[in-house]
């Protein structure tokens, strides 16, 4: 299932103007709009065009640096050519962000270059401690919004961050295992994506080292997601959701 080849107004005040081809917007080049594909959720056509890697860059927030308060995070999602594929924004209130910290519930809305919301990530308030195995983290991925395509479920482990990627029927599709220590100096932090039996590595979610100054004084991180090119497009969307869950928990 996970490896079947596929045929080839954001709310809250953020507005993205329609883009028809790939002009530069403030120095950013958008990926060309792909044609509609039968049986593919609208907006996920971008993930079917020979894409096996997505790069996620958190945007710099000056207010957060000056005030020390956690602001609503925003991200650019790009392909390997540096073209923007999606834009993502966290939809939470100030009280939730600053009181609940890494365990906060959130909704992340991912929009395409036409300004359409194509993926919605919903994370309820849950525990992230290994001492509470009955209420670990979970994230639901909808594409389009309102239609569930999969889940990312945290698995209990005494020392390792482990997750399971599931389809919309709650069937296990992939496993994710991270390192015991997720804070490293001058090195990337890799979360390995494996088959369900964990015998075969099929991809990776990486927190990329961005330099000492940026790591110490800002909250703007960069992440990479690699997956098989012929992975089901819905599971590619769920892997993007898995990256955002790992980002919120570990970084």
Automatic annotation (TrEMBL):
Listed cofactors: Ca(2+)
Coarse class of the protein's main subcellular location: membrane
Source organism of this protein record: Callaeas wilsoni (North Island kokako)
GO CC annotations, alphabetized: plasma membrane
Family: Belongs to the phospholipid scramblase family.
InterPro entries: Scramblase
Pfam family, one: Scramblase
Protein keywords: Calcium, Lipoprotein, Membrane, Palmitate, Phosphoprotein, Transmembrane, Transmembrane helix
Function text: May mediate accelerated ATP-independent bidirectional transbilayer migration of phospholipids upon binding calcium ions that results in a loss of phospholipid asymmetry in the plasma membrane.
Membrane-related topology note: Single-pass type II membrane protein
Stated name of the protein: Phospholipid scramblase
Domain of life: Eukaryota
Cellular localisation: Membrane
Gene name of the encoded protein: Plscr2
MF term (GO), any: phospholipid scramblase activity
């Amino acid at each position: 299932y996970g490896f079947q080849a596929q045929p080839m107004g954001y709310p809250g005040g953020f507005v993205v103007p329609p883009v028809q081809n790939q002009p530069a917007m403030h120095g950013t080049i958008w990926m060309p709009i792909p044609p509609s594909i039968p049986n593919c959720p609208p907006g996920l056509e971008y993930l079917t065009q020979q894409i096996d890697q997505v790069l996620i860059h958190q945007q710099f927030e000056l207010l957060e640096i000056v005030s020390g308060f956690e602001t609503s995070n925003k991200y650019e999602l790009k392909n390997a050519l540096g073209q923007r594929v999606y834009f993502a924004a966290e939809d939470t209130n100030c009280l939730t962000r600053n009181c609940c910290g890494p365990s906060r519930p959130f909704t992340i809305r991912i929009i395409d270059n036409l300004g359409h919301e194509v993926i919605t990530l919903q994370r309820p308030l849950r525990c992230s401690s290994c001492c509470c195995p009955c209420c670990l983290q979970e994230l639901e991925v909808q594409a389009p919004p309102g239609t569930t395509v999969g889940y990312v479920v945290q698995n209990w482990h005494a020392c390792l961050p482990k997750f399971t990627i599931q389809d919309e029927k709650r069937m296990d599709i992939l496993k994710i295992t991270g390192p015991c220590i997720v804070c490293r100096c001058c090195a990337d932090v890799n979360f390995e994506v494996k088959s369900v039996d964990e015998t075969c590595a099929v991809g990776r979610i990486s927190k990329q080292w961005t330099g000492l100054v940026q790591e110490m004084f800002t909250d703007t991180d960069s992440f990479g997601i690699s997956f098989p090119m012929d992975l089901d497009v819905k599971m590619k969307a769920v892997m993007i959701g898995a990256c955002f869950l790992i980002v919120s928990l570990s970084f």
